[in-house]
Amino acid sequence: MAVNIDTLIITTPLAKSASDPLALEVTGAQALATLPQVVRRLDNGAVRMTAPTKGASSKSTHRTRCEWKEATYWAMNSANRHFSHQRMVLEQVNSAQKVVIAQMHVKDDDSPAIKVFWNKGRITLGFRRDFDQVTPINSTLLAGVPLGALFDISIEVTADGSAKVIAIHDGREADSGTLKLTSSWYGRTFNFHGGVYNQVDYSAATPAEDRSVCVISQLALAHA
Record keywords: Lyase included (predicted)? Predict the structure, then answer.
């Protein structure tokens, strides 16, 4: 079954224009139709997303991404369960060997509640219990996940602010246990992100071939 990204928003590593260096954002359908160098449909229905390390970035950062995100934000109490699942392969990773692969982002803030990384062959997690928490609680979910390997990442959040992250690879499954978001998050709205977001700053000396590339073969989003 083909992965459907048509109505999602894709943040690309391409500039908006020659005069505007900020990262271009388009719908998934537009990306598939016009930007094959960064978003491409494969013959089996999967989607390949490519983020050169040197490229266009958001705001004042020097980090690029090719990342999908939900077009609509949601409140935790708007549904009993909010769910995001990706089955993916990392074909290539930047020179720092660290890339964000999934997030539970919060509107109008740069510090997500949940951020999931592939970091030198490990699936790791950064979690903020409180909205204004500067340093996340970091942990390793699953080690021994090499480049080229198929793995699954799921994020689940309930209306009362209980969250869980699950990673599966090669018959092994690990989860975060219950992550409890405090009431400081109530009143905020969120959306899920996924794909590849480079965790290394680019410079004039960054090689053109340095990049992160993923192939997403399953993607499911639910709010019910």
Answer: yes
